[in-house]
Amino acid sequence: MKIKPLTDRVVVKSVEIEETTASGIILAASAQEKPQIAEVVAVGPGGVVDGKEVEMYVKVGDKVITGKYSGTEVKLDNEEYTIVRQSDILAIVE
Prior knowledge:
Strand content: over 45%
Low-confidence stretches: none
Structural class: mainly beta
Number of strands: 10
């Protein structure tokens, strides 16, 4: 299956990062906070949202920082994705 976002929506997938404490203990993913860095996997076409024209600034493959509790989490083909509005993306990581 494939996710195709509508209007100003963006589908992102969290980037798994291994986190190590100062004493060298590697934290399991379940012990960490929700990662805020994600990779864009699909982008909506933009268009008119709430009466305003929305231009899409992100593209597939971009690494972005999203709001900590933003978006809707979905699971598709055993993969977890988050669907966010472009306005919930805080920055593009270069």
